[in-house]
Design goal:
mainly alpha; Hypothetical protein af1432; about 75% helix
Amino acid sequence: MGKAYSKKDSQIIENAMIFLMTEYSKSGFNEKPVIFHSLKVACSLAENGSPATTIAAATLHDLLEDSKITIKDLEKKFGKKISNLVSAVSFKTKIKDKKKQYQEMFKRTKYAGKEALMIKCADILDNSNYYRFGNNPEMEKILIQKLEYFIKIAEPKLKHENLFVKLKERHQKLLLEIKKESSR
């Protein structure tokens, strides 16, 4: 169960939510429901009892990739800690190879620390609910490899965290679904 947040902490989280909705509405360009997804990721972390800065960063985690917002915009509005967390969990769009892109980002996430790993864990957990919707076996394979790579990198720091345990369970469930389907 989540914890109660102070008025100051609640304001940090609410400011991030307002910023996400306002700025994504202005310049967002991803087809997926970015606002809904971002809020679900933030709520997962709130339920986990994460600090307000982590929840705010989780709320903002897709803005660098999916809108015209820059790291400087985030730093100006939310400070270095939150902008650094968002930067750590964001892809570098200059890297064109998707596998290298996520591997580099996961390594940065790992070095940014447990809070960044928790954001990425909640992000991947929520996204994993959609892995099988594409009906594209090649894409499923890539997504499973991505999930496995993250589990390997994050396990030393997150192995006892509830969200990480859920992610590992989701991974096993996906593998069983794929195995079941391929045996038909």
